[in-house]
Every structure is written in C-alpha cells, then in structure tokens.
Amino acid sequence: MLRLPQLRVATPDDLDDALALLRTPGARVVAGGTDILPNLKHRLDRPPLLVSLSRVGALRTIVRDQTAGVLRIGAGVTLTELSEHPDVRAFFPSLADAAGRVASPLIRNMGTIGGNINLDTRCRYVNQTEFWRSAIGGCLKSEGSVCHVVPGGRNCVAAMSSDCVPVLISLDGALLLRTADGQREIPLDAYYQADGTNHTVRGADELTTEIRVPWPGRPRRTGYSKWSVRKSIDFPLVSVALRFDLERDASNAPIVGLRVVVGVLGARPREVTRLDDLLGVPLDDPKVARAVADRVHQQCKPLGNVPYEAPYRREMLRVHTRRAIEALVSAR
Amino acid sequence: MADDARTPVPPVTATWQLGKAHRKVDAMERMRGVTRYTDDLKLPGMLHGKIKRSPHAHARIVAIDATRALAMPGVFGVVTGRDFPTPYGIIPWTPDETALALEKALFVGDGVAAVAAVDEDTAIAACDAISIEYEVLPALFDPVASLAASATNPINPFSKHGNLSKEVLLEFGDIDGGLAAADLVIEADYFFEGTTHAAIEPHCALAHVEPSGLVTVWSATQVSHYLHRELAKVLGIAAHRLRVIQPPLGGAFGGKSEPFDLEFCVAKLAMVTGRPVKILYTREEVFYAHRGRHPMQMHYRTGFAADGRILAMDARTVIDGGAYSSFGLVTTYYSGQLACSPYVMGAYRFHSTRAYTNKPGCGPKRGHGSVQPRFATEVQLDKAAVALGIDPIELRRRNDLGADARTVNEFRIGSNGFLECLRRVEVASGWRERRAQLPYGRGLGVAGSTYICGTNYPIYPNAMPQAAVQICLDRSGRARVFSGANDIGQGSNTMLAVIVGEELGLALEDIRVLSADTDLTPVDLGAYSSRITLMVGNACLEAARKLRERVTTAVAQRWGVPRHRISLVERKAIDREDPEQRVDIAQAFQWAEEDHGLLGEVGSYNTPKDRHGDYRGGTIGASPAYSFTAHVAEVDVDRETGVVEVTTIWVAHDCGRALSRKIVEGQMEGSAYMGFAEALMEQHIVDPGHGGVHTGPNLLDYRIPTFLDTPELKALIVEAPDPNGPYGAKEAGEGPLHPSIPAIANAIYDAVGVRIDTLPFSPPKVLRALQTRAAAEARGELPPHKRATAGGAG
C-alpha cells in the first residue's frame, strides 16, 4: 500500500478555529479526503499541516433560503447527501445527477461538494506515484519543467475533472470563500483559471464554506452528460452540463436562455458561446440539439491529458451533447 | 491403487456430497473479514522491507552506494543483486532472473536493491537514500525490433540466443497441400494486447529465521513447492532448513505462480538482520511483477472445404515476452499446441517466436498461452462460416473431434462434451429463433474451446507422483487432510473436503484441510494449469478409499455382515440392507482404530504417459483429460460511439463432473468475466514515448470492469465424465475463459458487420471500423449490414 507522508493533522471543533489554522503556510484542508489523500500518497503535495473538517458541523446542511432566492449547500455536504436531497432532485435535477455519478457509492459517501469543486486538476502524467513520475522526469505540475501533453507547452493543461462544476456553472452557481477575517462570494464561472498548477482563484487561507445556487426563476430543462469507460469509479472523459430556460414549462416551448458548460478539457471548464441564435427556437426543434452539439464540437478541444484519443473524445462531445438534449426533449 | 481411484464410480442417483452446492470451507472467515492473509501476519521485532526499483527501461548498473541508507537510524540491512547472484527461473532450462538486478535493470520497475527497516516509512526513506549510478541503454519495446537487435543490443544477460527467448516450429500433416486443396482460405492478422491478473491481494511475503537456523517464508504464492526449491537454490541453504507456508490468498489467476523478488529479499534480509522481515507490494509493484498474458501478433491461414471442414491451419505467432523467460518456453509451445482441439484438422503448422523486450515479464494468466490463439482460431471459423453461408454453430459441429479421439498434433482426448456445450448455448441463447431477428446493432456470436486438466509432465523432470495427499482420521469422528496444493480461491481445499466427506460419510465441517505448508504437507506442484481437481483429487480419492475400506471392514466385522453392505453417509455407518443397523461415524472410526491403530493413509497420483505423440515438444500441452467450453455472447453496439455493451454471455462448460456445483458455476462466471474484461477494456502496456513507463500501473488507469459493466453470465454445466478424473471430474477454472473474447468479436460482426481483429475492442477502434464500413457501403463496395437504419442503434 502507498504510504501517506508524515504530517500534522489538526481537528478543530469549529469553523473559526479551522480558519485560523488555515493561516499556517502550506496548510491544506481535508474533508472527505477522497482527492487529497491519494494525491498526498502520490507526493503531489507535502503540506506541513492538514486541517481536518471532521468535527466542524456547520458546513453540512442544505438550506432553501427564500429571502435570497438561493439554495445554500454547505461545503461539507457529501455527494451522496446532495444527490439524494429532495429539493436538489426536484429543482436542480442536473446537479443531483452529476453528484450521484461521481466515482462510486463509497467515494460519494465520503467525498463532499466542497471537495468536488476544489478537486485538483488531473493528468495521466501527474496522478501517478512519485517513482513513476521520476521515470519520466516529472512535469510542470510535479517535479519537472516540461509538459508531456502539449510538447513545448509552458502552461499546465491538467484537466478540471469534477462532475459537479460544469453543472453548477450552468446553474449560475456561486461559492462562498471565508477567511478568519471575512468572506467573499465568487460566481463559479469566475473561480477557475487556465493553469493546471493553480486552477482556482482561492487564496491559500480561504475555505470554501458554501455553494449558492439561484432558485429557478422560470421553467427550464437541465441535464448532465457524462461518459466514462466504466459505468462506475471513473472520472469523466466527456462531461457536458446543459441548461435551457424556457418560455413555459413544455419541451416545445421557445428557449429564452441557455448555458452549456464542458469539463475535462484543460484546467478550466469551458462555457460554450455563440448560442444566441437558438433563443426563441423551440427546444424540441431538432436543429437545437444539432446546433448545440456542433458548437460544443467546434469550441471544445480535448487534450491527451486523460485516457483515450483526443479526437475520439472531441467527436463524442458532439454525440453525447446531442443525445443529452434529445433526452431532455423526450423526457415527460 | 491409483488404477482403482481412476475408475469412475457407477452413476449414482443420489450422493452424499458430490455435486452439491457447498459453502466453501473458508467462506465464513472470508466473508466476516477475519481471514488472516499474509499481510495480516505480524511477528515480534518484525522489520519492513522495501525494494528500490529502476526508473529506466534498460540500464547498466555502474555503482550502488548504500552508505547513507545504512547509516540511517532504524535501517537494519540493505541487499543488492550481488548478495544472491544465483539465477533462477520457474522453468529449469531458462534461469534468467536474479532476485535483484546484477549488472543491468531490464524494465521500468526492475528491482535493484532492498532494505529492511523498523517501519515502512523508514524503509522508503532508506531506498531514497541509496544512490545508484546508471548507464542508460537503448530500450527495446517491440518484439520484432528486439529480435532484429539481438546482436547489437541483447536484453537479458542470461539469454543464450540474444533477444530470442524461444522458437518453436511444428508441422502435422500436409499443410501446403491442405491449403491448396481448400475451397476457402481465410488469412488474417490478429493482435492480442497484453493483460494482467489484477488479483485484489498484492503479493506479500514474510520471512523469519529461527535460532536453529530454520528459515520460514510465508508467501502469497500459488506454487509453494517450486518456491521452496528456488529459495533453497538462490539462498544456498538446504531444503530441510527452509519452510514455505502459503496463507490464504486474495486471488492469483496465474500471477503468483513463480518466485518473485520479494520472496528472496525477505528471506535474505531476515538472514542478514536476524529479525523477521515483511514486504508487501504496492499495487504499482504488482503491475511490474506482472507475468500476465503475453501480447501476441498472430498471422493465421485456415483452409476450409466448402462444407466447412477444416483442411489446414497455419499459424505464425510473434510473442512479446518482456524482460524474463518466466514460463515462456511453455507459453511458446502452448501458443500452438493447444489450438488443435476441439476440432478435427486435416493438417496443422505453427511457428511461434518469443522475444525479450524491456517490459515487465509476461507469464501465465488464466488460460495460459492459449487464450490468444483461441481468439484467432475462433474468429477464423466465424469468417469461414459467413463466407461459406454455414451457421457458425453448425460449422463447429461439423468439425467436432468427439470423445476418445486423437488431435492432429497427437494428443489423446478422453471424454468430450463439446457438442453438448454447443447445444446448451444454442438453446439457452435462443440462437436459432433470435439471431436472424436481432436488429442492426445487436448480435450473437459463438466460440468454442478446450483446455488441459494439468500438464502430463511436471516442470522439472522426475518420475515421482505429481500429487499426493495424506489423510488422518480421528476418534472424534473427523478427518485431517494434508495437501501441498495451493488453494488460491478456486476452492481446492473445499474440493478435497468434498471427496473425503463423500468417501467417509463426513460433513464438510468435520474435515480440516491443511494445505501448502512444506513442513506439514506432502509435495504438490501447485495451482497452475488447472491440475488440482484432477490430480490432487485423484490422490485424495485414493487415500480416502483406503480409509473407507478400513472403516467399513471394522464395522462389517462388528455386525457380522459383508463389507460391501456398509455405507458411510450422513456421519453414520449404515447397513445398506438393514438401515436400522447404524452407528455414529465416530464409533465406526473408533472400531477401525481399535483394529488397525492410527487411521492414516496416503494417496498419490501420476499421469498416464500415453497421451501424446512421440516428437520433440509433444509432451507440452498433453494432459490426462481435456475440458470443453462453448460461449454465446450477445452484444449491443452503439453505432455512433463505438461502445460495445455485452449484455449476456451463455457459458456451457464440460467439467466432466461437477464435484461442487456452486464453485464450478463461480469459476465459469469468473472466467467469462475475465475474458470479457480483456476483450473490452484491459491493456497492460508501456509507453515507448516516455521511456517505457507502464501507462497506468494502478486500478484507476488499468480498468477492470465494475459490476455495472458486467454482462449477465449464465453458467450451464455440462458433464461428460472422464475416466482419468476423480468421479469423472475435469477442470473448470481456466477453460471457461477462452471463448469469451472470440464470441464477443463474432457477436460484434453479427451486430454491425465489422471485424475487430485486435484487442481490446475499445470504442475508438470500433467506431473507426464502423466508419470504414459505412464508407465502403456508401461506395457500393459492401451491402448494408442488416439494413442499417438512419436513426442509429444501441
């Protein structure tokens, strides 16, 4: 078995203590541990201190905030809880679906939504043991100075591989970051940046405490399309979140707004643009599915950072996007 | 006598134990999580070992400096290849490995030095502190390129023929004439990607030196006897000073069937430090230890008569062996020798060449050496069936060898349930009614196969029995069975208990099977080549029948009736003609002990020597009996994504006689699953573009299917009892894997009209083939397959 490095673990009883501990330079947070512990075993980080949230109860609720018109999801809510929550299933079905398709049941029982949002970027040349990486001389994200995915590349393109992030962006989600001194809210579409070694704007002492998703203001259809080789365990190889706001609650209603967000490309999820011509078109018009799929295909260029040939995955983005929209149309 | 033991009992309408759905003797401990695997063993003062491995695929070791490591607090010892330089190998003719690299590292992950320290972290730190100076050499990853570079860049320093590991050319009958006379010749290239075993328990070994000097090694091995021999040789100590114990195993599948570096290292480090030493492989190290299925490039020409008869088969195979020989000599023979059944062939030739490459060594994985040629052989038959317009099941029937037959390469076949296997899968799958009706995208495919029940000759030449069992009865009404056989999860301990229970009227819980301990149990050669049920079962049956005779004699004397009237069943001795006359089995054992003294008997088994032809290599692949299998696979192919969903596999397997029904079914399902996994997902490959690193030595990147991915598996037991098997039993652990892969390939063709002749049938590959066919259809070169509709399928 791979060993964890020797490190100090603090188990604060409340949030304030946790935030104070996070000021320790290099400290990292551990909640479910399903991402950071394997990464530590792979020696991808050597934090002097792990701040465990295991005793911090405050982050584990899902609250419907009528005044603010948002669903407030505590960062410590597990993926299982999120996927099974009645409000999430009824009003945010694409989020319930994405959360319920992360990895495997056991991992979802441990892993939290806060952890999933902050999931470190992944790459076939990075998420291996230290020994393995030493055999290829490391890379931009580990011990080296080259990129094995983009030869000559100076920018790490490790893939944002969260299932939930594209969906939350498509739902206009935001997250709350707290420090010992204060807090700020950042829309999720502004949270990520195109650098696989540092792919969020979160400060070192900031803790994700809450995810806020606006309550649906009008009828809509949302969906999440994931394809992976196996039907469980695997990270997505194709990951597309879809949201169509509709004039009325029917699949033949005209589209009045739409967001399409794609994951597992580079370090940052990509929002598909130039979709305005579909406004006013009924969702069930076959050209919608075709046009969205084509634009996803045009704008998204998978890389060799995860398994399977990039051209195949690019072609599959088109197929799975189209099918997901067809499924939205035919549902109910 | 063994002859007596091999005579199948007359058909019995009801038996006490045979063919029941037993719970395995170790099932409850396993289910409750209290089984003590090797890694669960802890000894006072135990040190933890770690092996430092080469990051280079091919490198000369210029210098090793362990000074810093040895100076670290908590480090007790360091060993390198120089400490035990004797080469070893599971096949006595090809010793080409040393416990740790001597002068060169031969692949990324090859062991170079080992340390023992107070704990694992210290051992890891000590490994990091060992500095090794390498001179990096050009690495060879392709077997053809490697053979060409034999003179300039030989890989394995012990090899006698450069990068040629083994070459076999055998010819039976007039192959050229057969091909010339054929109405149809199918010629194609196939490629079988390498795969590994992925047993859930990683290899683990623990060694302890007694003050007397006795070295005990506990190891997760499936060949404790061979390990005992090789340890004695490499460590330079006498056999009597060495004891090997195999604790319960968490899977093996062939991946633990030869000695590995950790076993030598723990023993040597324990001798050096005077303290117990344990090493547990990481998952990554399991991938480097490997010995999995060889990649094979296969060029096949098969000639058929218009009525579907096979007139000739010609196979040219290049085998990628990796850095070591392992079982490669046998693999090279098996790649050709095991392809001649279950079909009659007019003539046959195979030419197989195994090459060294700078990769983890390949070896035996479930269905050793014959799963790859079976893929080629059965797809060739399917192509012929299509070309000749013959139903693929019917074509196989027309070529059936039958029972008591002789193959073209002169193996003698005993019982043969292949036709019944075909019939069962044909009926169960609804082949006749459904196959023509299935729409585009869905299809059925069939394949057949055969496998050995042990090898006729042991790995090292000797005329002694291949298997032996010792049984001791106890006045409390129980039995102890001493067997050297390795229960690797296949249930061999349960099989022995079933035989003893059947013969002596005991329940399975009355029987303690003590296995695989070289101090306590008779020699057995181990768990490989599906030998245990037939060979060890026969040995056990012989010993059990001797004891039954003693017990029934004692009872018959007490009752004044002839011995044949005494039955031992249901923990009782019963007078068959006067069933009211009965005693508890404990009383019966006590009478026998009064008459005979301690009730102990031995049985042994050796193979009949008339099973093969009289030519060089003719003994390799010869077996006392052969199992037969047929699969029908049903697939659903997604035309737009190339994703192949295998929905159902019907597995009919002739196991001779099912001694324990659930275990046989479990082996059939597990085998079909494993083949399916290789067909669709698994790839044990290295990346030549990155110095030959394994592409993902972990169970996230090396994908074995989950429950959700796994097809419905329908096990259909067929019983054609073989005179050489105990009660007629043959193997069930490996044979049922073989047809999975070609059956799926043939089903894909039936579904969408494309041939995927290389493994695995991954979505990108299938999609490319679909696009190529669609283009050919668009050009009018091919008719639409099953009248494909525009809406897609799947």
What does the secondary structure layout of this molecule look like, with pairings?
The complex is a heterodimer of chains A (332) and B (794).
Chain A: E1 8-10, H1 15-21, E2 28-30, H2 36-41, E3 49-52, E4 62-65, E5 70-74, H3 79-84, H4 86-91, H5 93-99, H6 105-110, H7 113-117, H8 130-136, H9 164-170, E6 174-178, E7 183-187, E8 207-214, E9 220-227, E10 238-246, E11 255-262, E12 270-271, H10 286-299, H11 310-330
Parallel strand pairs in A: 1-3, 2-3
Antiparallel strand pairs in A: 4-5, 5-8, 6-7, 6-8, 9-10, 10-11, 11-12
Chain B: H1 2-6, H2 27-32, E1 47-53, E2 59-65, H3 67-71, E3 75-80, E4 104-105, E5 111-117, H4 120-129, E6 131-136, H5 143-148, E7 164-172, H6 175-181, E8 184-192, E9 204-209, E10 215-219, H7 224-235, E11 242-245, H8 261-273, E12 277-280, H9 283-289, E13 296-304, E14 310-320, H10 328-337, E15 347-355, H11 371-388, H12 392-398, H13 418-428, H14 431-434, E16 442-452, E17 467-474, E18 478-483, H15 492-504, E19 511-515, H16 532-559, E20 566-569, E21 572-575, E22 582-584, H17 585-596, E23 600-605, E24 626-637, E25 644-654, H18 661-680, E26 686-687, E27 693-694, E28 712-718, H19 740-752, H20 763-778
Parallel strand pairs in B: 1-12, 10-11, 14-15, 18-19, 25-28
Antiparallel strand pairs in B: 1-5, 2-4, 2-6, 3-5, 7-15, 8-13, 9-10, 9-12, 13-14, 16-24, 17-18, 17-23, 20-21, 21-22, 24-25, 26-27
Give a quick set of tags describing it:
heterodimer, A: 332 residues, alpha+beta, Uridine Diphospho-n-acetylenolpyruvylglucosamine Reductase, domain 2, Uridine Diphospho-n-acetylenolpyruvylglucosamine Reductase, domain 3, Enolase-like, domain 1, 5-stranded antiparallel beta sheet, 4-stranded antiparallel beta sheet, 12 strands, globular, B: 794 residues, Aldehyde Oxidoreductase, domain 3, Aldehyde Oxidoreductase, domain 4, 3 domains, 7-stranded mixed beta sheet, 5-stranded mixed beta sheet, 20 helices, 28 strands, 28% helix, disordered N terminus
